[in-house]
Design goal:
Layout: E1 4-6, E2 12-18, E3 29-33, E4 48-52, E5 59-63
Antiparallel strand pairs: 1-2, 2-3, 4-5
Amino acid sequence: MPFSYKNKKGITYYLHLRGPAKQEGKGKLYFFSKSQGTDVIEDMPDGYTIIENEKTGLPILKRK
């Protein structure tokens, strides 16, 4: 089951992962989207927490 987060407005977002990039020095890109895609991940990565933008309600993945 994909990792999802429901914000204070009741909208469900799914956590996606892009990368690692082919170029050296590039890392992984985590982002939230309303739709499920092929790059949805199952678990939240270790060392991260979710915060929510107060104005827009968008979830943000932040390092602890």
